[in-house]
Amino acid sequence: VSWNKVGREHFLSIGTEIWVQDANLEIAHYTWPAGISEWNLVFREARFEDSGLYDCQIISTEKLTFRVRLTVSEKPPHNPIISIEGKEFVESGQTVYLKCNTTEGDRMPEDLDWFKDGDKIEASEYPNILITKFRFKDTMTLVSELMIISGTGNDSGTYICRSSSDLIASVEVNVLVADSSNVKRGTGISHTQTGNGQNYGNSAICFYFFGQNPLIFCVVLLAHLIIQSVIT
User: Fold this and answer.
1) Which end of the chain has fewer CB atoms at under 10 Å, N or C?
2) Rg from Cα positions in the chain
3) What is the CATH number of domain 76-178?
4) Are 161 and 112 in contact (CB under 8 A)?
């Protein structure tokens, strides 16, 4: 098996030997079952002058040739980006949800970390915190989600996501402990007292099951109905 660049007088390689003085070239030879072999021409670092047509020839009783075209193009610009999204105002007891997206242009970011008020968040140390990470090869994007179940006032603060290349995005989160007679920020719904003047509100118990298909089951308990039934 030989390799040659169309337009050159001499072979680039014959068998596993390189026949030109070019340290950038090598032959990768592999043998597979059923008599299948690979003779791959490898360019350690592609250069613009390497563009062109190449012939792979099998020399036997009948010469067989396979022609391929190599095009070496400009390297895409390295344009790292990071962004964070999520609600800035969350009612106490609700889930704090933040999502961070980062890309480093032509390469996949190695990792992404979360911080609160300057301290790194270790999800393993908090039973109500879940951090997930997803990699998308088609866009070279790393996405991380931070969830704090049943947020409290202690969860208010500045949250930062930082990529392995030190890109940073931040958001200020406020967990509100609102009076039942006030309008909840961002909802536009007014909660007023009804019936006997007591408003116990609603509470919810959520069960989270994580696997290939995450499921969330929530059972809503109407507290005032339960209390009334007990009184009765």
Assistant:
1) C
2) 31
3) 2.60.40.10
4) yes
